[in-house]
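Good morning,

Attaching, inline, the backbone tokens for the sequence recovery test we're adding to the shared suite. The designed sequence is right after.
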């Protein structure tokens, strides 16, 4: 199938992705100027896209998007904006877990992405990371999500611990929130998880974690 592309000179915007995949192309803002981000967003909006995600956006870019597009919802801590937001009935259940405030921005990006795509999301940002013995009881309080996203920027043990206690897929989201080599220890620990059923996205890739969780939650029916 030939992709539908809008040639902007500095970017080739995939305006047909929403029809092919069920969700439009996201705008990754890092490395782009604010006018470039706005122009890409305008291209997607002209094509009729809704729930367009602008990720890794600076405060300046978030302000410009809010100004340029009425109704834009901005999430400053997650550095994310949702353009032309359309509420969707939540499907299934994705549970997003972390245990430290510094891991919350990446966790929240993942949660917002899954919600924008149409998943029902539960946030639990109080995992007992400093008391692993309390984790089984803490997890018994949840009511059966289809998939977990576990954000962790420490030694990376939390995704493995959660996976060993639940019967669902766990998506490990390493964060760069601590350490001399931010995120590296958490990434390597998750990649070498001894518990089966752990899949891993790259450091701080909340967008990828939320997208993958939604696909698993809906079994690809987006």
């Amino acid at each position: 199938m030939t992709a539908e592309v809008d040639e902007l000179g500095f970017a080739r915007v995939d305006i047909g992705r929403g029809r092919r995949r069920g969700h439009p192309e996201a705008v990754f803002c890092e490395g782009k100027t604010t006018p470039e981000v706005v122009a890409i967003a305008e291209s997607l909006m002209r094509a009729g896209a809704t729930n367009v995600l602008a990720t890794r956006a600076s405060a300046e870019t978030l302000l410009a998007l809010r100004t340029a597009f009425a109704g834009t919802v901005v999430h400053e801590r997650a550095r994310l904006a949702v353009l032309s937001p359309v509420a969707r009935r939540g499907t299934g259940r994705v549970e997003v877990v972390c245990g430290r405030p510094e891991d919350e921005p990446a966790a929240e990006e993942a949660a917002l992405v899954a919600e924008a795509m149409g998943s029902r999301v539960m946030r639990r940002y109080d995992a007992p990371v400093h008391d692993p013995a309390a984790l089984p009881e803490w997890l018994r309080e949840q009511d059966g999500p289809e998939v977990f996203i576990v954000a962790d920027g420490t030694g990376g043990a939390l995704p493995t611990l959660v996976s060993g206690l639940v019967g669902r897929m766990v998506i490990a989201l390493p964060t760069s929130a601590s350490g001399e080599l931010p995120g590296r220890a958490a990434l390597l620990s998750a990649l070498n998880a001894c518990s089966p059923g752990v899949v891993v996205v790259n450091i701080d890739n909340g967008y990828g974690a939320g997208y993958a969780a939604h696909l698993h939650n809906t079994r690809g029916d987006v």
